[in-house]
Amino acid sequence: MDIKVLGTGCPKCNKLEKLVKEVVQETGSDAAVEKVSDVNQIAKAGVMLTPALMIDGDIKAAGKVPSKQELTKMISGS
């Protein structure tokens, strides 16, 4: 699983990255988490609002920080 946190470094972006890493660790997922802060790459992904979460090339959330419970469902697939 390839997870990308898209954001320029704002507090919400940092919070999303932290939560995603926590969920990956807690669920035992073998996901690779990458932080994308380049504005051009974010725009190329079609994201207009940050923070955004991309899992395996699909935007799962944009413009908000999902709850830990929502992130767990997205990452574990349940």
Q: End-to-end span in angstroms?
A: 14 Å
pLDDT averaged residue by residue: 94
Silhouette: globular
State the CATH architecture: 3-Layer(aba) Sandwich
Give the name of the CATH superfamily: Glutaredoxin
Low-confidence stretches: none
State the secondary-structure class: alpha+beta
Q: What number of domains? A: 1
Q: What is the CATH class?
A: Alpha Beta
Structure characterization notes:
The chain has 78 residues and is an alpha+beta fold. It has one domain: Glutaredoxin (3-Layer(aba) Sandwich), CATH 3.40.30. Helix content is 41%, strand content 24%. It has three helices and four strands. It has helices at 11-27, 39-44, 68-76, and strands at residues 2-6, 32-36, 52-55, 58-62. Strands 2-1-3-4 form a four-stranded mixed beta sheet. Strand 3 and strand 4 (58-62) form a beta hairpin. Helix 1 crosses helix 3 (68-76). The longest helix has 17 residues, at 11-27. The model has no long low-confidence stretch (mean pLDDT 94).
